[in-house]
């Protein structure tokens, strides 16, 4: 019986830890989406070059487009589903547990009508698209390809040094 108890407790701890990791990743995703939009707007007006990094902006756009499509389709976020599934394997208790879980869930999950989330996600997605128009990713003038900020900076430095 002791061996079973140890096995069961280690299994519960394993699923609890995995669920906490998924919750942390989910929170980081939300923070990334919100922060990059804010920094893009601020950086656009302050002329920060790094906010025009094509890869950063594409990842950001894909992330918010995914959220908007899933909300319009009436789907639950896959990270929320995965976390709930992991917690259901945690001895059946789904939103009780660790310190991390307690605080991140209060940050991440809100109670509101589904249409409110659809409107908020859609407006946020439109703001992201607006930043693409107002502060577009930078293209390399010689190739016409989108470049990362570091590549553009290196080329500008080379041009400055050759003059």
Structure description:
There is one protein chain. The protein is mostly helical and 163 residues long. The protein has one domain. The chain contains six helices and no strands. It has helices spanning 2-46, 54-72, 78-88, 99-108, 114-134, 149-162. The longest helix is centred in the N-terminal third of the chain and has 45 residues, at 2-46. The protein is elongated. The relative contact order is 0.15.
Work out the radius of gyration.
Answer: 22 Å
Main sheet makeup = none
Per DSSP, the total helix count is 6
Structural class: mainly alpha
Number of domains: 1
Low-confidence stretches: none
Mean pLDDT: 80
Gross morphology is: elongated
Descriptive keywords:
163 residues, mainly alpha, 6 helices, 74% helix
Summarize the structure.
The chain has 163 residues and is an all-alpha fold. The chain has helices at residues 2-46, 54-72, 78-88, 99-108, 114-134, 149-162.
């Amino acid at each position: 019986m002791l061996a079973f108890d140890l096995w069961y407790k280690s299994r519960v701890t394993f699923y609890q830890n995995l669920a906490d990791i998924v919750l942390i990743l989910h929170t980081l995703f939300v923070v990334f989406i919100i922060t990059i939009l804010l920094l893009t707007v601020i950086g656009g007006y302050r002329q920060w070059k790094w906010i025009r990094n094509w890869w950063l902006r594409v990842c950001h756009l894909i992330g918010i487009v995914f959220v908007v499509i899933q909300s319009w389709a009436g789907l639950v976020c896959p990270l929320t589903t995965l976390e709930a599934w992991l917690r259901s394997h945690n001895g059946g208790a789904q939103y009780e547990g660790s310190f991390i879980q307690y605080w991140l869930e209060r940050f991440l999950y809100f109670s509101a009508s589904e249409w409110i989330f659809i409107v908020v996600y859609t407006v946020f997605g439109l703001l992201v698209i607006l930043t693409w128009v107002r502060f577009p990713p930078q293209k390399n003038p010689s190739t016409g390809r989108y470049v990362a900020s570091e590549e553009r900076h290196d080329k500008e430095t080379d041009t400055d040094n050759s003059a």
